[in-house]
Amino acid sequence: MSHDRGQDDGVDLRAVDEDGYAAWTRACHRGFLRSAITDEDLALSPSVLEMVPGRVLGAYDGDRCVGTFRTFSRELTAPGGGLLTACAVSSVTVTATHRRRGLLGRMMARELPAARDRGEAVAILIAAEYPIYGRFGFGPATWTTEWTVDVPRTGLGRYEPPRGGRVDLAEAAEVRAAGPALHDRFRRSVPGAISRDARWWQVNTGEIQPPIRQWRDPFYALYRDDSGRVDGLLVYTVEDIWEGKLPQCPLTVRHALAATPEAERALWHYALSVDWTAKLHTGPRPPDDVLPLLLGDPRAAQVTTHGDYMWLRVLDVPAALRARSYGTTGSLVLRIHDEAGIAGGRYELNASTEPGASEVRTTTRDADLAMDVRELAALYLGDESVVRLATLGRIEELTPGAAARADLLTRTSRRPWCPDMF
Ligand SMILES: CC(=O)SCCNC(=O)CCNC(=O)[C@H](O)C(C)(C)COP(=O)(O)OP(=O)(O)OC[C@H]1O[C@@H](n2cnc3c(N)ncnc32)[C@H](O)[C@@H]1OP(=O)(O)O
């Protein structure tokens, strides 16, 4: 077990072993302001959270756990379908009594280089608050949007099963059986999506139910094509709310996942046709979701939430840039500044339209663009525009026209999306 003692505050960082999980988990819940944790929650915690030996980090003031930080590996889909191993960072907390003394900074300084040395080209996380992670080289790489749909205004007729395909209600066990293969097809075609482990399906279908999560059984609907293959899954709950004799019964989508356009259209149409529902809450969706345009009146879908979602940090520039594909071929020299000394340097990219086929090497050639590693993070999955960041003064255009040229290379036809909370 390696130790890392702070210079003068006596707080020790160390990897936590199984004996320390309960105290670590309690500290993590306290950090997230959850006080109602029970012994059952603590006992179930390792089956809910992936605890990788050596990658569960605690900060200890004497025997007291005052900081938590946990990482595990996930496969991340890059533009063009390239896959790379990402270091997923989660459970980041510092107890209220120990905040703003640099503990998070110390945990990052220990774990990010370790992730790069393991061969993880990027780190990813869901930021609780926007200002936390930019200083550590992370940038917002995917965004999320939620809509509330005024169902009677959609102009959609009753749901009719598509020719050849069908929608059926299903039990949780069927979803656990069919879901992983469906998700695997889905996530490989969506930049920003990440792999799921078996635990995800157990927790999200109620097989493992920690009291703190207050599980409520949802409805599950599966879309099958004419060969019987499961191409889509819709998970939703409905509130039994009436105003006098008029049913309101808002329907909230928990998860919607489709591997084909037919499945996507069919499941939305189905969801918008459930009797008694006057409002549909979409849950988190990609900002360019097709849903509003599926409606006869797209204004029936009102945006209720819009914000940054998955943040990314490039740890190995050549490996990350090689993993994705580009909109066209072309060459670009990037000068990347990285305060933490992890990924900085000058890199020449000779872009290919095939994932894994670009050439990326360090170079002494003059740079076309100069930026901080956090800007590279925001650009990586294709969601952000180089021209936009240059307008803000966050990217320096050293060769005239390089920003627009870089956008032709990096931007994607659909926005990246990460549907998972981790
Ligand atoms: C992936 C996830 O798990 S997201 C969940 C993140 N956790 C939470 O939001 C739980 C509640 N918050 C916390 O536990 C803590 O405030 C943390 C973990 C966010 C920060 O821990 P700390 O040990 O206080 O951070 P640390 O002292 O290393 O701060 C480093 C710098 O970031 C700044 N910073 C840290 N947190 C925040 C914040 N929430 N908002 C703005 N600035 C912040 C600090 O001011 C400091 O700046 P400085 O170097 O200019 O002085």
Explain how this protein is built:
It is a single chain. With 422 residues, the protein is α+β, with helices and mostly antiparallel strands. The relative contact order is 0.15. The chain has eleven helices and 22 strands. It folds into three domains: 3-120, Aminopeptidase, CATH 3.40.630.30; 145-306, Aminopeptidase, CATH 3.40.630.30; 316-410, 2-Layer Sandwich (Nonspecific Lipid-transfer Protein, Chain A). α1 (21-31) crosses α2 (39-48). The protein is globular. The chain has helices at 21-31, 39-48, 103-117, 172-188, 198-204, 261-271, 291-294, 317-323, 373-380, 386-391, 402-410; strands at 3-5, 11-15, 56-61, 64-77, 83-94, 122-126, 139-140, 143-150, 166-170, 219-224, 230-238, 242-243, 246-247, 251-258, 279-281, 301-308, 310-314, 330-337, 345-351, 359-362, 369-372, 395-397. It has an eight-stranded mixed beta sheet, sandwiched between helices. Helices cover 25% and strands 31% of the residues. The structure holds acetyl coenzyme *A.
